[in-house]
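Data availability excerpt. The first of two example chains:
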Amino acid sequence: MQSILRKNTILVVGGAGYIGSHMVRHLKDNGISLLVLDDLSSGFADALGDAELIVGDAGDVKLLDFIFTSRHIDAVMHFASFIQVGESVLNPVKYYENNVVKTMTLLGSMARHKVRNFIFSSTASIFGNPIYSEVDESHPQNPINPYGRTKWIVEQLLPDYELAYNLKFVCLRYFNAAGAQPDGSLGERHNPETHLIPLAINAALGRSEPLKIFGSDYPTPDGTCIRDYVHVCDLVAAHLLALKYLRAGNDSICLNLGNQTGYSVKEVLKMVGTVIGEAVPHQIVDRRVGDPAILVANSNLATTILGWQPKYSKLQDIVTHAVAWHRRN
């Protein structure tokens, strides 16, 4: 029997966070060997069940060398970026150091240890303000905030690592990750919370102050920003398909992940109110720096290349699953 030390293993960097913990569960459910690396600065060890966790920094060269030497890692999934747009504007140094410099350290260690497969959690923020609806992969990339630029920089350097070190990659550009496990057993926990759906749920449940809507004068039908919300379980399913794609020896690629349908902030609040049975208390405040008016995906290429088919594409399903998590926790 193959020793566990020689078994092909996925290193899930940032695996104790929101999307990372769902990825860990999905990999375990599919019988795939994995190891989690997380500094727990924003993740939670109790979200991992019995998955093996190393508490540490993705920029720690000695730790990375130890991991790649002691375990047969054949692929890395990266979920360890900071993600708050507003914070990135106020504190760009934090974002460039973590999202770019530490990712380069990780890639350097992968190159030294000949780990060839890299799946990167990217973002629709690399596109900036769309110049046409249903943003596809060929849309010009013009990020308008430091968060988006950090992701864009990593995407730009990956082809150089491929040329020099034969490192193959899949960049998965999320639109708006949302939702929870359908049974409410695992969901979204951020401290502080910045995502619309959990903020709206907490406000409707009376657990927080009224929700702040950042701007109501955007060029959209109701004046609020429009986003494409994609279920977290569908996102992690795409990562597993990307892993199989790379392990089969296919070419590097960047793909958009969304449901190709946009909902405004006010439409999301209406759905949360419908599911909970209580209106979402809210107030209109000034626009937030760095927010584009509309971001909606064209994900046809992910369907063609990976065979990805979102299972929970309806906003009602996304909100219902998220509400189940929040009621339980």
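And the second chain:
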Amino acid sequence: MANNPGKTRVTQRHLATQLGLSTATVSLAMRNNPNIAKSTRETVQKAMLDAGYVHHAAAASLRTGLSGIVGVSFHNIVHPFFSEMLVAIEDHLSQSGRAVFINNHRDEPEALNRFITSLRLHRADGLIVSPALGTTPEMLAPLRTSGQAIVFVSRYLKDYEADFVGNADVAGMQRATEHLTALGHRHIVMLGGIPETSSFENRLAGFRRSLLAAGINWDESLCLPGSAKRITGRALVQKALERTPQPTAFACFNDLIAFGAMNGLHAAGLMPGRDVAVVGIDDTEEAEVSFPALTTVSNHPHQIGTKAAQLLIARLENPDVPYETIAVEPEITVRESCCAFMPL
């Protein structure tokens, strides 16, 4: 179809001349860059709409060397913690004109590897990732050698230099467990978490440290690992209740494990918060309305997601800055699932 000979294609230079701005300012405002005043961004974007200007991403990529694409990969994207984190990441990246490709690798290294290959084919600028169990530095090497930014969230690879934003996992589980020991509990079992992941190892360290500080002998059998699912929490409680002496409290790897644990206690004829105390980690929205309401440690997923996006953008703008590790401090919210323990 022939072009309309009476129609002149609007360019950034035309818009800049019309508005009395530099082409650089117009370019940044079009991408909603926060360094440009909000009023200027709104003026430029209105002028774009009025003039029928369409941003040509491919052409911009040729000019800048950046595609405007960022990959985000989690091991359980439907988990409320990661869902909220994803919302924050997408919100912040979209404000800077970037598009997000999403992957749920389900803790399968091959699924993550395929996603990395796809990102390379699309010339993505970087990857925000909670690495799958079994992820190796070699899997990430193609991104690193191509100059793409990598930011770890929630989990990280040991001895691999990269930006990281996540929970202060040792401190989080310490606060959860110390709350139980302060209530008088001596028979506490940790439920859930996948061994060999950084988040599990750090939370286990916090659990063990808290028991020892309370004068409770450490035993490996006091931790029952498992995938972070409700059904796992229920199964682990059934196993834990077979112990002698029977546990009076459970420190759970996350809220989903805790919800499953409370379900398992109900099935066993025990009342969480009255007969057995339960504490979780994540402080999901459901924690406040569960029965009983769950005592839990907040890990601020929105804050983690926002900081991860900021780190990635900063890395793209200046690849040579030192790598950053940001651990968000946890806060415990006490509710009805952790009643004071009354020794017989």
